[in-house]
Amino acid sequence: MPSSSRKDWDTYFMDIAFMVSTRSRCPRRHVGSVLVQGKKLLGTAYNGAPMGVPDCSEAGCMVVEEYEQVPDAESGISLKKKQRCIRTIHAEQNLLMFTDRVDREGSTVYVTDQPCWTCANMLANSGISEIVYHRIYPKDYEKVAALMQQRGIRFRRIDDYVAPPDTEAQVSGS
C-alpha cells in the first residue's frame, strides 16, 4: 500500500480557495477566497455579479477603460490603457459581506489572487490578522504590501503552490 502524505494547512486551504473559484462565471478571472480561524473553515466566496443579476457570461462584461501612468525610457512617462470589468463583486468583498466580524477577528483569509487595492483596504478594516495568496497582482503589490505592514497584518504569498487539476480556468484579460 503506497504511503500517502498529508497536505500542509496552507496547501489544504488554498486548494479549497481554488475549488471555490470554479463557481465564478467571470470570463476574465476566477478568484476564490476562504476565511479560516485556527484550522476551522468559516466561509467561502468567489467573484461574480450580485445575486439575482445576470453575470458576465449571460450579459457580457461591463468593461470600463482606465489609463495608468507607466515609466517610459524615452519620454519619462507614458499612458497604458487598461480595461476592467465593473459588473463583478470581488471574492474578498463577497467573503466580507457573508461572514461575521466576530468570526473574522484574528482569522486568516486565503485567496487565489493577491487582493487589489480596494479589497486590501476592506480587509485591513475587517479584523483579520493574515492574508495568504498565490497569484500576484503586480499593479497593486507595493502599496498593498505597505498597507498590510502598517496595519500589522501578515501578508504572504505561497510561491511553490500548484493548484488542483481543473481549477485554474483559462481566462482572458486581467
TrEMBL record:
Keywords: Hydrolase, Metal-binding, Zinc
Positions annotated to bind Zn(2+): H90, C116, C119
Family matches, as PROSITE patterns: CYT_DCMP_DEAMINASES_1 (PS00903), CYT_DCMP_DEAMINASES_2 (PS51747)
Listed GO MF terms: dCMP deaminase activity; zinc ion binding
Domain CMP/dCMP-type deaminase intervals: 8-155
Annotated GO biological process: pyrimidine nucleotide metabolic process
SUPFAM superfamilies reported in the protein's UniProt record: Cytidine deaminase-like
Required co-factors: Zn(2+)
PANTHER family in the cross-refs: DEOXYCYTIDYLATE DEAMINASE, DEOXYCYTIDYLATE DEAMINASE-RELATED
Protein name: dCMP deaminase family protein
UniProt organism field: Cohnella pontilimi
